[in-house]
Design a protein that fits this description.
Elements lengths: L1 H11 L3 H23 L64 E6 L1 H17 L7 E5 L2 E6 L4 E7 L5 E2 L13 E3 L4 H4 L7 E4 L3 H4 L4 E5 L8 E5 L3 H18 L6 E5 L36 H16 L4 E4 L2 H5 L17 H7 L1 H4 L10 H4 L3 H18 L54 E4 L24 E9 L34 E6 L8 H8 L3 E6 L1 H14 L8 E4 L4 E6 L4 E7 L5 E2 L13 E3 L4 H7 L4 E4 L10 E3 L8 E5 L1 H19 L6 E5 L30 H14 L4 E3 L2 H5 L18 H4 L16 H12 L1
Parallel strand pairs: 1-4, 1-7, 6-8, 7-10, 10-11, 12-23, 15-18, 15-21, 20-22, 21-24, 24-25
Antiparallel strand pairs: 2-3, 3-4, 5-6, 8-9, 13-14, 16-17, 17-18, 19-20, 22-23
Helix pairs in contact: 2-12, 6-7, 14-20, 16-17
Length: 803
């Protein structure tokens, strides 16, 4: 055992002392995980009648309690031994008796700087005296750095979060205050690469009687400045600007976000028997019902509502509620025991100490060291990251094969339940080995039932995905109109990229009426297809379809619609096992298809051989596919059909011969779509990249099959059994959360009417059809895919309209 330990140390080049640190850090991380999980309640909105006694967990309320005198374990550090103490907070001096390669940034006003200095003192007390450290001030940015750990703890002065005339870290006592409540970029570029962000912004909004809002730029003659006395709306807009930045720019797999609630200040109270602010106070308040009346409940509601809204949009911000606990500590402010700046300040302090008492900031050591358990936890996590960064080397990710779909059509076993909240602990894998790629040979050593919860809430099938750009025009609601003058938009025989799976005329379909139907939206008209205009939209861009054979059918439709205006010597197609790319030289544009039928990594990702007896997926592994699509400018996703083929197996580990967990198709799809949604949320800027999700394409296997159907269904209320409502509910929940990052191409209802548009028996089959099936055409009719020209052309017309 001793030799093994020495070998481990030698392999990873880690000193024994560091191993001890790592062991302690890992133990701390486990405690942190348990703590955060237990307190990860989505309901954070403040209710007025519960502000004083807020409870997040019936067994342990971190924010309700008492201060206990403890001269054994506190203070955590000595004021005079902290190299970074500021005179503002050094009360004793003025007379009063983790993260290697990581960056922690506090953003806000002097109260957050107070917390920042507290963190520096706490971290500094743990660093050996021989460890080199530096503290630099560069404009608004304070930077503490430990070169040995390649880590930094920073503070950035931004009291209103958004841009203002008070943004000078040294000189900000200006009047009136002027804020550009829609502008945050000048600040955010200083912190956007942080690994941990701790924000605060409250006092600077609550303090002044009025402030000015600037529409435009500072110094611009066209700018308009407006005085406001009711600051709730500007505060809400500023927080919305901040939250939009967070949603658009924060990498949710990397960055941890915290927002510090308002701290109590004690400008005047009679709780101690005199209206003398905090001057002369020496004890905490022990009355647990005490609550400072200065707090703006409306502002607190706006703050917590903003954080809750971010969570609904897929961004988790930990709200650090220090308000109640700091209310008890009127004794912990500097009062007059700090450095003051001004003319004749010593005489004025002596004559009127109560007037000058600082009852806003906090002495150090003191309250900021204890503010909510999360702050010691942040410090622990900081050190955990230092240790883990030494140990963990990210493995290179192998490629994966992708392209075609001919899955079995077994009966669906989709099932519902309650909302799926999180994946099991097995998905946290820190293996040092390179991942073993799933392929057609992958097998589960054994299988157990998945223990997670799954399911969805209600949805109206008639409105699912029916988002439109113009409210009066619903592109996805309408009827099919026979039009043999304008349609088809191309001839089957003229498209060199036609698939034998979709070429119904070539394979003997006797009727061609399916080609002549035009979609007529309710209350408006579809823009007429123009191939050259579409190419102009695509100039210099990559359009990529990602999904299964239904999405490949839409991709082929797009090629057939576009190719006729490109000279044959100016176009090319490059097929391979992973990605098929059509290039138009004159437009420097590509139209591509990536085979990823289950979106996440699976054993069905082989381009040719994917008809397997069991489906195995890695629900938290999307990088192998996303690395191929992340540079595309326009992405069109679909995923549905392959989840309807029975249960799937979940593989959480990168190791071979691991036990799999079995889950229903719907449960597996929800896990996969959550991973996809996380990628979209963290990587997609709607101003630069357009993402579309194509809703489910209905099948017409039941209700008499689709064989020999020659006309669309005319009943506008028709809803077939080929579309699954539980799946639609789950998708609606996820897509709604992504908001403007994803546009929904809702082809479900309009395709439901087209029972006549499937290939049925008029296509190439990859396996010989026996005499028994030939005698019963309905038994082998393809009622899933679509003939071309046909229904997928309309899907692309809708895409053309939305682009």
């Amino acid at each position: 055992m001793k030799n093994e330990k020495l070998a481990f140390i030698k392999t990873w080049k880690i000193q024994p002392k560091l191993l001890q640190l790592v062991s302690l850090a890992l133990l701390a991380l486990v405690a942190v995980s348990i703590h955060l999980t237990r307190n990860n309640s989505p309901e954070n909105l403040i209710q007025e009648n519960s502000l004083k006694t807020r409870v997040e967990n019936p067994r342990c309320d971190l924010f309700s309690g008492t201060w206990v005198y403890d001269n054994f374990s506190n203070p955590i550090y000595k004021e005079r031994k902290c190299l970074f103490m500021e005179d503002d907070f050094a009360c004793e001096t003025f007379g009063r008796k983790d993260l290697k390669g990581k960056r922690l940034v506090y953003v806000g006003d002097s109260l957050n700087r107070n917390l920042y200095k507290s963190m520096l003192c706490m971290v500094d007390s743990f660093l050996p005296a021989t460890t080199k450290r530096t503290l630099k001030l560069n404009g608004n940015l304070y930077n503490f750095r430990s070169p040995e750990h390649n880590a930094s703890i920073d503070f950035y002065w931004s009291p209103l979060l958004v841009e203002s005339n008070a943004d000078n870290a040294e000189s900000h006592s200006v009047w009136p205050r002027v804020a550009r409540i829609k502008s945050i970029e000048n600040h955010s570029r200083n912190w956007n690469d942080a690994d941990i962000l701790v924000f605060d912004s409250f006092v600077w909004w609550a303090g002044p009687l009025y402030m000015n809002i600037l529409w435009g730029s500072f110094g611009s003659p066209e700018s308009v400045e407006k005085r406001v006395t009711k600051k709730l709306l500007p505060y809400e807009i500023a927080l919305r600007t901040w939250s939009n930045w967070v949603e658009m720019n924060v990498n949710r797999t990397k960055t941890k976000l915290f927002f510090v609630g308002p701290t109590a200040y004690h400008e005047g109270t009679t709780i101690w028997g005199a209206d003398h602010r905090c001057f002369g106070l020496k004890e905490p308040v022990f009355d647990e019902t005490f609550w400072r009346s200065f707090m703006s409940y409306d502002m607190m509601r706006i703050l917590e509502s903003t954080i809750k809204d971010l969570e609904q949009r897929g961004v988790k911000v930990e709200y650090i509620n220090i308000t109640q606990m700091s209310s008890y500590r009127g004794d912990a402010h500097p009062a007059t025991n700090r450095m003051f700046w001004g003319v004749d300040i010593e005489r004025r302090l002596k004559n009127d100490p109560m007037h000058f008492a600082d009852c806003l900031h906090w002495c150090l050591p003191g309250v900021p060291d204890k503010k909510k358990t999360h702050f010691p936890l942040i410090a622990l996590v900081f050190f955990v990251f230092i240790a883990l960064t030494v140990l963990y080397n990210e493995s290179n990710i192998q490629g994966i094969h992708t392209d075609d779909d001919n899955g079995d059509r077994r009966p669906s076993t989709l099932q519902g339940g309650s909302s799926l909240k999180s994946a099991p602990a097995q998905n946290l894998n820190l293996s040092k080995k390179s991942p073993v790629g799933l392929d057609k040979f992958s097998k589960c050593a054994s299988t157990v039932s998945y223990g997670g919860r799954r399911g969805v809430s209600g949805v109206n099938k008639a409105v699912f995905g029916g988002r439109t750009e113009v409210e009066s025009c619903n592109l996805f609601s309408g009827k099919w109109v026979f039009d043999n003058i304008s349609y088809p938009l191309y001839n089957e025989s003229d498209c060199p990229y036609m698939s034998d799976q979709l070429a119904c005329g070539k394979h003997g379909r006797p009727d061609l009426r399916y080609q002549f139907w035009r979609w007529q939206p309710q209350g408006c008209n579809l823009k007429r297809w123009d191939a050259r205009e579409m190419w102009e939209k695509l100039r210099g861009k990559r359009l990529m379809f990602v999904g299964d054979s239904l999405n490949r059918g839409q991709w082929i439709s797009m090629l057939c619609l576009l190719q006729s205006v490109i000279p044959s010597d100016k176009r090319s197609i490059t097929p391979n096992s992973e990605l098929t790319i059509f290039r138009a030289e004159d437009y420097n544009a590509t139209v591509e298809f990536l085979w990823a039928p289950l979106v996440v990594e699976s054993n069905s990702d082989d381009a040719v051989e994917h008809r397997l007896s069991e489906r195995i997926i890695r629900p938290n592994s999307i990088l192998r596919h996303s690395s191929k699509w992340e540079q595309a400018d326009i992405l069109v996703f679909n995923s549905y059909l392959w989840w309807r083929q029975g249960p799937v197996k979940l593989l959480w580990s990168n190791e071979k011969n691991i036990i799999c967990q079995e889950i229903s198709g719907l449960g597996g799809m929800e896990l996969a779509m959550e991973s996809w949604a996380d990628w979209v949320a963290t990587h997609v800027d709607p101003l630069k990249k357009k993402v579309f999700f194509v809703t489910m394409s209905p099948t017409h296997q039941n209700e008499g099959n689709c064989y020999d159907e020659k006309e669309p269904i005319n009943d506008k209320n028709y809803w077939g059994s080929g579309s699954d409502l539980p799946t639609m509910r789950m998708l609606e929940k996820i897509l709604t959360r992504l908001g403007s990052k994803v546009s929904v191409l809702n082809i479900t209802q309009l395709s439901e009417y087209r029972k006549d548009g499937h290939p049925t028996i008029y296509r190439k089959f990859w396996e010989a059809v026996g005499p028994e099936k030939l005698a019963n055409p309905s038994s082998y009719s393809d009622c899933t895919h679509w003939c071309l020209p046909g229904v997928p052309d309309v899907w692309n017309e809708l895409l053309f309209q939305l682009l």
